[in-house]
Design a protein that fits this description.
With 142 residues, the chain is mainly beta. The chain has a single domain, classed as Jelly Rolls. Helix content is 0%, strand content 42%. It has no helices and 10 strands. The strands form 2 sheets. It has a 6-stranded antiparallel sheet with strand order 1-2-3-10-5-8, with no helix packed on it. A 4-stranded antiparallel sheet has the order 4-9-6-7, with no helix packed on it. The chain is globular, with a radius of gyration of 16 Å. The model has no long low-confidence stretch (mean pLDDT 92).
């Protein structure tokens, strides 16, 4: 049998167990994609938060996607996201992509209410991405 020319492009070893997410995640943060891009696909099914404000020297897209494949627009969650040095807070309650340019300070991101699982997809335009901190405790009800 002839050697495959493109088989190396099909990546199957990216599945990870990350305790604060539901189920398995797909993670390529250490150059596995062999391009200037990294990504993480996670499922969130309970309130949680990423509290530490930070920025990156690359563009990053954070995608909040409803977990129902028949209607991904039904997010099933309320997320509060802080952007910029001014601490501008945005409420996300429908499927959305937050497209952040390099240098934009972001966080906290608070998954305040989660009524059904949703997809949290992060795409970063860098070969290597290191997390800025693990999620904190679930947010307290106000």
């Amino acid at each position: 049998m002839a050697e495959s020319r493109y088989g190396h492009l099909i990546l199957t070893g990216l599945i990870k167990d990350i305790p604060h997410y539901t189920g398995k995640s797909i993670v390529a943060h250490d150059g596995e994609l062999d391009t200037e891009c990294s990504m993480g696909y996670h499922c969130i099914s309970k309130p949680m938060s990423f509290d530490r404000p930070h920025s990156h020297d690359f563009a990053e897209m954070l995608c909040f996607i409803g977990g129902n494949p028949e209607d991904i627009t039904d997010l099933g969650a309320e997320i509060m996201m802080t952007l910029g040095d001014e601490g501008e807070v945005h409420k996300i309650n429908t499927t959305a992509v937050v497209a952040m340019p390099p240098g934009l300070k972001h966080c906290p991101i608070v998954f305040k209410k989660v009524t059904r699982p949703l997809v949290f997809l992060e795409i970063s335009l860098t070969r290597i991405w290191k997390p800025e901190g693990m999620p904190e405790k679930p947010p307290e009800d106000n």
